């Protein structure tokens, strides 16, 4: 496709075009100036080959008017649409912070808290569009713009259309062809979209409702969180093969530091069966609000000491219970520590903290507030309680007189070293500094409001 001639320096009605700031398959966006209201604006000028098509021009104006009805802080506002000679153009709110797609390419995947903020904001904007019976049909990272405050705005409703009942269309147009004139867009009868983000029903040219936009929003944030969309399909044939094949692995098991509750929301948006997705924007928004980052309040010394004591009690109870077994004290110490490790592992898997921390309403996270892996939680607990093993073995050696003074001193020295590490952690905590254990494992204990 040949580049469209520059319109810089030209005026369209009372809008001056200063310089091009972006270009897409359907036209070019200019930094403009509204001479009437004396404010900067963005002006999208459509390519001549599209503007000359009466059907396209009529649909473009109709859809621009539809987007102008969606007045919401997270949707780019349309101020004007018109045609001057052969030039078809739309004047919009100027959003100067780039797109989420550009941010992803520049800095890599978003942290989950930033992604959650934008996810919730866009859901609110799309709920307003749905109230007006408008669906977007082309949600993707490049169509989400950021303002100078870092707030997200959904743009490019150029493919938007009305919600259609599935019962209203008995003979859907299933003619599917790739449109070579528009990069990254695929035409499905009268429907177009970007294949990596298109729902199965959109790819088939079926009637759409808000749940198709839900799928595209989930695909968008899967890419923003992981760096890759659900599929790399370019053509509809590839997209159809993807939707007909085995489902991709869900985000929840491979979420890394993304909380399970937030990962599950993305997975549910990406369900191929529309009945398994969220059934409304209100339902999605409620789930997002429930999975929102919790307030981060540093835990004090006393609850952490009590949490540590609760975990130690498990070791002591196991040791006392094993006294009836015909085993030496050293073996019983080892078995008791195995019970403690199992206790820590189960607690970390179920509650994302050691059971003692959970009972004291504490939660372990990274310093940035992200979720820790189960391996980190268990290993941290084991190291923090390792003094019990060396202390117990030293007592067993002293009690049974089966170790040399050197061996006994080594065991006692290790027990003292580990116990001082725990004590040093608590002393640092009382001085409002990160504990030694927390510094070693990159953790932080917070008050958890359940």
What does this molecule look like?
By secondary structure, this protein is α+β, with helices and mostly antiparallel strands. It folds into three domains: 11-92, Phosphorylase Kinase, domain 1 (2-Layer Sandwich); 100-290, Transferase(Phosphotransferase) domain 1 (Transferase(Phosphotransferase), domain 1), CATH 1.10.510.10; 297-447, no CATH class. Helices cover 45% and strands 15% of the residues. The protein has helices spanning 48-51, 54-69, 100-107, 112-131, 200-203, 210-226, 236-244, 260-269, 281-290, 301-321, 329-351, 355-359, 374-384, 387-400, 405-430, 436-441; strands at 11-12, 15-23, 27-34, 39-46, 78-84, 87-92, 134-135, 144-146, 152-154, 161-162, 176-178, 186-188, 191-193, 297-298, 362-365, 444-447. The strands form five sheets. It has a six-stranded antiparallel β-sheet. Strands 11-12-13 form a three-stranded antiparallel β-sheet, with no helix packed on it. Strands 14-16-15 form a three-stranded antiparallel β-sheet. Helix 10 (301-321) crosses helix 11 (329-351) and helix 11 (329-351) packs antiparallel against helix 13. The two termini are 57 Å apart. Mean pLDDT is 81; it is low at 160-191.
Report helical residue fraction: 40-55%
SS summary, helix count: 16
CATH class placement of the largest domain: Mainly Alpha
Q: How far from one another are the termini?
A: 57 Å
- By CATH, the superfamily of the largest domain comes out as Transferase(Phosphotransferase) domain 1
The count of β-strands is 16
Provide the domain count: 3
Global mean pLDDT: 81
Largest sheet: 6 strands, antiparallel
Radius of gyration: 30 Å
Structural class: alpha+beta
Assigned CATH architecture of the largest domain: Orthogonal Bundle
User: What portion of residues belong to β-strands?
Assistant: 15-25%
Question: Can you list the strand order of the major beta sheet?
Answer: 1-2-3-4-6-5
The CATH topology of the largest domain is: Transferase(Phosphotransferase), domain 1
What is the general shape? Answer: elongated
Low-confidence spans: 160-191
């Amino acid at each position: 496709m040949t580049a469209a001639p520059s319109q810089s320096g030209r005026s369209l009605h009372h809008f001056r075009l200063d310089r091009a700031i972006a270009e897409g398959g359907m036209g070019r966006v200019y930094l403009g100036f509204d001479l009437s209201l004396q404010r900067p604006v963005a002006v999208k000028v459509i390519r001549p080959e599209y503007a000359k098509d009466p059907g396209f021009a009529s649909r473009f104006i109709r859809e621009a008017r539809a987007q102008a009805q969606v007045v919401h802080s997270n949707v780019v506002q349309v101020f004007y649409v018109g045609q001057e000679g052969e030039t078809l153009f739309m004047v919009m709110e100027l959003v100067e912070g780039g797109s989420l797609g550009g941010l992803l390419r520049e800095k890599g995947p978003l942290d989950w808290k930033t992604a959650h903020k934008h996810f919730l904001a866009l859901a609110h904007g799309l709920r307003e569009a749905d109230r007006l019976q408008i669906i977007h049909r082309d949600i993707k990272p490049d169509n989400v713009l950021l303002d100078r405050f870092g707030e997200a705005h959904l743009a490019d409703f150029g493919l938007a259309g009305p919600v259609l009942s599935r019962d209203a269309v008995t003979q859907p147009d299933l003619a599917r062809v790739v449109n070579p004139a528009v990069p990254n867009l695929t035409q499905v009868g009268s429907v177009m979209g970007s294949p990596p983000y298109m729902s199965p029903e959109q790819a088939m040219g079926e009637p759409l409702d808000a749940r198709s936009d839900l799928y595209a929003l989930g695909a968008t944030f899967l890419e923003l969180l992981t760096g890759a969309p659900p599929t790399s399909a370019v053509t509809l044939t590839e997209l159809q093969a993807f939707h007909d094949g085995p489902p991709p692995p869900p985000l929840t098991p491979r979420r890394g530091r993304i909380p399970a509750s937030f990962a599950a929301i993305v997975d549910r948006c990406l369900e191929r069966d529309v009945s398994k997705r969220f059934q409304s924007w209100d339902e999605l928004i409620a789930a997002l609000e429930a999975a929102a980052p919790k307030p981060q309040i540093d835990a004090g010394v006393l609850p952490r000491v009590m949490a540590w004591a609760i975990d130690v009690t498990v070791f002591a109870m196991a040791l006392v219970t094993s006294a009836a077994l015909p085993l030496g004290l050293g073996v019983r110490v080892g078995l008791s520590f195995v019970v403690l490790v199992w206790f820590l592992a189960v607690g970390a898997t179920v509650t994302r903290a050691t059971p003692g921390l959970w009972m004291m309403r504490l939660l372990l996270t990274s310093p940035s507030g992200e979720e820790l892996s189960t391996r980190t939680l268990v290993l941290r607990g084991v190291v923090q309680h390792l003094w019990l093993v060396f202390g117990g073995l030293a007592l067993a050696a002293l009690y049974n007189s089966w170790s040399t003074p050197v061996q006994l001193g080594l065991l006692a020295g290790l027990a003292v070293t580990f116990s001082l590490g725990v004590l040093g952690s608590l002393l640092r905590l009382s001085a409002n500094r990160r504990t030694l254990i927390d510094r070693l494992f990159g953790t932080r204990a917070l008050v958890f409001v359940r």
